[in-house]
């Protein structure tokens, strides 16, 4: 079990770039009231993420992956259990975290630089804010597009701006909810490498929700398989399996070890890979 950092560490990371924080979930449950009763989504989730670690969460649609992300970010509250970052409980819309979604969600009337600026911590001095925005635009390769509007850039560029906006807060934990799902295959691969570059430059803790097993294995230190405990979509979910990914990033996408892990995870998701592997080995 990953050791927690001292509880005395401050929750205010507004002036500490790259202040990666640990994440601890103890017996976390989330239920939602419905007219016909109660819908249980998550049950008994136990999770430790070390500061600076990249962890991916995979699972079928509706199993609670996005709910888990929202709970850690303070956008929702658990029905039961506790969530702590560096030993300190998560508060409502916790400013130690930042979220990037599948859609960039940029304001169309603002420039790319102005959209990134929206992510700055409250009270940031104007000059410091301009310098931070310029630094982030350089990091994601958008210096040339600083004064363009979202409609004037590609989908990949817009998503890079979304990542820069999330990083502007200097989050201890970066939460990514299918951030590359709407991109074409080539742009998606480039975004994978950009995310690793960002993590190397500003090594925050990252929790990535994805449907793409190959993406999870390429990017993450560990992959969590979230799955319903019963056999129905209405059953609650928990972490069914944790897979540690060997090797140093960036990894070789053609590595046979990753292929074996991919098959293992896909089978955990209910996908029969035996026939495909047999055919490919002929």
Plain-language structure description:
This protein is α/β, with parallel strands linked by helices. It has two domains: 17-96 and 172-252, P-loop containing nucleotide triphosphate hydrolases (Rossmann fold, 3-Layer(aba) Sandwich); 105-170, no CATH class. 30% of the residues lie in helices and 24% in strands. The protein has helices at residues 65-72, 112-117, 126-139, 155-167, 185-201, 213-219, 256-268, 274-280, and strands at 23-34, 37-49, 54-58, 80-85, 88-89, 97-100, 173-177, 205-209, 222-228, 237-244. A six-stranded mixed sheet has the order 6-7-8-3-9-10, sandwiched between helices. A four-stranded antiparallel sheet has the order 2-1-4-5, with helices on one face. Helix 6 packs across helix 7. The protein starts with 22 loop residues before the first strand and ends with a helix. The relative contact order is 0.17. Mean pLDDT is 86; it is low at 1-18.
Protein traits:
282 residues, Rossmann fold, 2 domains, four-stranded antiparallel sheet, globular, 10 strands, alpha/beta, six-stranded mixed sheet
